[in-house]
UniProtKB/TrEMBL annotation, chain A:
Source organism of the structure: Agrilus planipennis (Emerald ash borer)
GO cellular component: cytoplasm; GID complex; nucleus
Compartmental location: Cytoplasm; Nucleus
Gene Ontology terms describing biological process: proteasome-mediated ubiquitin-dependent protein catabolic process
InterPro entries in alphabetical order: ARM-like, ARM-type_fold, Armadillo, ARMC8/Vid28
SMART domains: ARM
Gene: LOC108745181
KW Transcription (keyword) present: no
Protein name as annotated: Armadillo repeat-containing protein 8
SUPFAM superfamilies: ARM repeat
Keyword Nucleus: yes
Keywords: Cytoplasm, Nucleus, Repeat
UniProtKB/TrEMBL annotation, chain B:
Superkingdom of the organism of origin: Eukaryota
Gene coding for it: LOC108732541
Designated name of the protein: Glucose-induced degradation protein 8 homolog isoform X1
InterPro entries, per database record: CRA_dom, CTLH/CRA, CTLH_C, LisH, Ubq-SigPath_Reg
Residues in CTLH domain copies: 63-120
Organism: Agrilus planipennis (Emerald ash borer)
Length: 675, 232
């Protein structure tokens, strides 16, 4: 073994090249790691290093032999020779590139703080290796126990990105800092440490290896943080503001990755509120760049990322949505992205990606009927979305449902395309599966929102869905622990009950059951309560249905109304309850349920003098219905209410300044026959 | 010639004439050659070429030493030495590029088999190579072919003997070149492959485009000898 080994790095001899084959033969090397003889220890370190680099199995093996604490000890000990500490750092860096549990182990034993400490020393090579190692660990440093960097540490890190420093250092620091941006606190801390100015300088460096992580870092800093985004947007370097620096990176001659990251940055700055949607930088530069990156000539991962980002950019602004939708074949290229999942080979890679594309579609279709129409007319999109509903991948199902929800806001589409594709069918089966399993609430929420729209009175899907057991499904939904799901369930039932046939109404009441209705009326979420009252109201109207419904479920409905009227609710809620009473009072025999209930009558008279005119109006409307002339028993009812002082109150209310209330008072009074 | 006139193809003679009239300066050619030598790490050749042609290399030739040392080690079958040097130079490289790591390990395995160190080869394959095939089917395939060599008394004459044949040198050269490119990339060199090979790729791409459009043209059929054939 003497073949012209000349370089100084080879002086350690050939033994370290022997990678150990199994645990037994590695034992000796591991033992030397603990040797007080620094040469032996170094030899052991080099041997371990060459064994673990590139191999997860070897990493696993040495970790199992418990060497991590010893490595940390060597790395920490300033009395040891630098080359020992250097090799220890390299090994830790390599272990950090192993499996998730290796990384977790390193994070849990305080590797990051130790590395940060070493940065304060003055060993150039050691610092380089430690920065690389920090970068690797930072990428995994998530969750509640993740590292919080002090101002001093942040400043130290930023000091490594001076233009005079080497490229790897700058690239490392940019990545470490972007991982550090976990929330508003960290974003602000970075800002306070002067990051915007430093990053602006880095943006102007020619090297792509520095620019890309710098862009990522800026994007992370600005994400949903108004203050920081404003600070970044106003930072100037060489008389140019950061947004303008970023614009220059959007042009076609720049590498795709750079265009993408720069547009992400600008998108985040805009969404955080530091640039307006009308700003030419957003509308005329960022948007077209993203649209262009969605096109077929680019590699799939870039197109996906661009589509997702475009979705985020256009999410809340309908002008931007419109511009995007009429831009250069965008809808075509997005659909093309979805269609590319046809090839089985790409399927795996594509799986997560459909999500983003559907999201982009969902975003585009959010507010504008024309855009929705264009999206739907696009070749085979609806087919894809429907397929997506049945995909085995959860992410795709969610994306497809979201897209469907967005498109289902269109009355016209509900009546045409949705019907042509029988969209309700996969949606129902999706929801039916949910009823038995435990799907993520997000998916359920989007699916049931879409369902709500499909059950609207004019939707042709309503009838077939009823036959497939929609009512039972929705009733189950109202028992979910998540308020948003209960709301969607009741809401859909309310839509369903509106002007529907008697049998549907009975079906709803049977499926829900009295207990569940009372539970919903006591719901902590006001929305759920309101929609439940709306449902009851739809159940007892129109007039033709009132008597039958009350004959079947009268006592429960009355009980429900009393429950709400007695509860500590806002006027909005009580108004709904009074409206139910008014609907009941509209019926023929149904009136008896009110007249026979002393308690309810007492409440009605009380509400006639309530401080809220809305409640007064509703109560008097109900009274008006009760005393309506010419109906069987009208005279008795009038007498009864007169005895309770209702007419006197009405006389007192004639002087009300509220015109709506006045009308109702007048109307009610004219019903009373003078005796 | 008006644009409406339809001409089917350029004849070979015409094309050769055009080529002959196109002047490419010697300095340009020399720079291309120097670029190739520097990128591929042929230090001695670069030094000689500098003396002969007077073209200055774009980088300090001494900076090539590490790459040369590593390439020599690979070419001479000292894979573990090459790996150790590589780990010394860029500790993150092989952890980041597991495919390259596998190819180096595979070369080492072949060396062990070639030298008849069967037991060592088997143990090595188990401890260092098997994991690479776990999630990459193409790697698994290559691995199986290599390990299959162990099953034969005389691996050289086995169905997988090609791995031990001189043709295998091609693979070694390829791996060495990949390692070279990976180092350049790690060192943030903007260019990681010689301009000459880019030019060759450009020829192939252009001819491919022309073929797709079913155009008749004088085609370069052999890159090595630059043979151009008449349109067919």
């Amino acid at each position: 073994m003497s073949e012209g080994v000349t370089s100084e790095i080879m002086q350690i001899g050939m033994q370290p090249f022997m990678t150990f084959v199994n645990v037994e033969s590695s034992r000796a090397y591991i033992d030397d790691l603990y040797s007080p003889d620094s040469d032996k220890c170094l030899e052991s370190l080099i041997c371990i290093k060459n064994s673990v680099i590139g191999s997860n199995r070897q990493k696993e093996s040495v970790i199992a032999q418990g060497i991590v604490p010893r490595l940390m000890q060597i790395l920490k000990d300033r009395n040891l020779k630098t080359n020992l500490r250097l090799e220890a750092a390299v090994i830790i860096g390599s272990l950090a590139k192993g499996m998730a549990d290796h990384v977790e182990l390193l994070l849990n034993c305080g590797t990051i703080p130790l590395l940060l400490e070493i940065l304060e020393e003055n060993e150039k090579l050691l610092i380089d290796v430690c920065l690389c190692c920090l970068r690797t660990l930072a990428l995994h440093d998530k969750g509640s126990l993740s590292t919080t960097y002090t101002l001093q540490q942040l400043q130290k890190l930023l000091s490594f990105v001076n233009p005079s420093e080497n490229i790897p250092r700058q690239a490392c620091v940019a990545t470490i800092l972007s991982c550090a941006c976990k929330g508003p606190v960290e974003q602000k801390a970075l800002c306070a440490a002067g990051a915007p100015q430093v990053l602006a300088v880095m943006l102007c460096m020619q090297h792509i290896a520095v620019r890309i992580p710098t862009l990522t870092c800026l994007a992370a800093m600005c994400y949903e943080n108004k203050e920081v985004a404003a600070e970044v947007a106003n930072t100037v370097y060489h008389d140019v503001m950061i947004p303008n620096l970023l614009v220059s990176l959007l042009s076609r001659d720049k590498p795709i990755e750079m265009q993408l990251e720069a547009s992400k940055c600008l998108t985040n700055i805009y969404r955080a509120g530091a640039l307006s949607a009308f700003d030419t930088i957003i509308a005329n530069r960022t948007l077209p760049c993203l649209v262009r990156l969605c096109q077929a000539e680019h590699a799939l991962p870039y197109r996906i990322a661009a589509a997702e980002n475009l979705g985020y950019l256009t999410e809340v602004d309908s002008e931007l949505q419109q511009t995007a939708a009429i831009s250069n074949q965008l809808i075509g290229s997005l659909t093309d992205l979805l269609n590319s999942s046809d090839t089985a080979a790409r399927r795996a890679a594509f799986r997560n990606n459909s999500v983003d594309i559907c999201r982009a579609f969902a975003s585009l279709g959010a507010n504008d009927e024309d855009i929705r129409k264009r999206i739907i007319e696009t070749n085979r999109l609806m087919g894809r979305v429907v397929e997506g509903l049945g995909d085995e991948d959860e992410g795709i199902r969610l994306a497809a449902v979201r897209c469907l929800h967005s498109l289902s806001r269109s009355v016209q589409q509900l009546r045409t395309t949705f019907q042509d594709h029988s969209v309700w069918r996969p949606l129902m089966s999706l929801l039916t599966v949910f009823a038995t399993g435990s799907p993520p609430p997000e998916l359920l929420s989007a699916a049931s929102s879409a369902l709500c729209n499909l059950l609207l009175e004019f939707s042709p899907a309503k009838e077939p869905m009823l036959q497939q057991g929609a009512v039972q499904l929705l009733a189950t939904l109202t028992t979910r622990p998540e308020a948003s799901l209960r709301l969607n369930g009741v809401w859909a039932l309310m839509n369903l009950a509106f002007q529907s046939e008697q049998r549907v109404k009975s079906q709803i009441l049977t499926a829900l059951g009295t207990d569940q209705i009372f539970r919903l009326l006591a719901d902590s979420d006001t929305g759920v309560l309101m929609k439940t009252l709306g449902l009851l109201r739809n159940l007892v109207s129109p007039r033709a249905h009132t008597d039958t419904m009350m004959a079947l479920h009268g006592s429960q409905v009355m009980q429900a109304v009393v429950l709400v009227l007695e509860g500590p609710h806002s006027p909005d809620v009580k108004e709904q309850a009074l409206c139910i009473l008014a609907n009941i009072a509209d019926g023929e025999r149904a009136k008896d349920y009110i007249m026979a209930n002393e308690d309810v009558l007492k409440k009605l008279t009380d509400y006639m003098t309530h401080p809220s005119t809305r409640l007064q109006t509703a109560a008097i409307f109900c009274i008006g219905n009760l005393v309506r002339r010419g109906e069987a028993g009208a005279l008795e009812r009038q007498q009864r209410l007169r005895d309770m002082g209702v007419l006197t109150i009405l006389h007192q209310l004639v002087s009300t300044p509220d015109s709506l209330l006045f009308d109702k008072v007048k109307a009610a009074m004219t019903q009373f026959t003078d005796l | 010639m008006s644009y409406t006139e339809k001409h089917d193809s350029t004849s070979k003679e015409e094309w050769m004439k055009t080529l002959a009239n196109k002047e490419i300066s010697r300095t340009t050619i020399n720079k291309l050659i120097m670029n190739y030598l520097v990128i591929e790490g042929f230090k001695e050749a670069a030094e000689k070429f500098e003396m002969e042609s007077g073209v200055k290399p774009s980088v300090d030739l001494n900076s090539l030493n590490n790459r040369i040392q590593i390439r020599d080690a690979i070419m001479n079958g000292r894979i573990q030495e090459a790996t150790a040097l590589l780990n010394q130079l860029h500790p993150e490289l092989l952890d980041n590029d597991r495919n390259l790591y596998f190819h180096l390990q595979q070369l080492h395995l072949i060396e062990l088999i070639r030298n008849n160190r069967v037991e060592e080869a088997l143990a090595f394959a188990q401890s260092h190579l098997s994991e690479a095939g776990e999630d990459d089917t193409s790697i698994l395939n290559e691995l199986e072919r290599t390990v299959a060599l162990l099953a034969f008394e005389d691996p050289l004459n086995s169905p997988f003997g090609d791995l031990l044949q001189p043709a295998h040198r091609q693979k070694v050269v390829k791996v060495a070149s990949k390692v070279n490119a990976a180092i350049l990339k790690m060192e943030h060199q903007i260019q990681i492959s010689p301009k000459l090979s880019t030019l060759l790729k450009l020829i192939l791409w252009s001819q491919d485009q022309l073929d797709k459009k079913i155009t008749k043209y004088p085609k370069m059929t052999d890159l090595e000898s630059a043979t151009i054939e008449s349109p067919k």
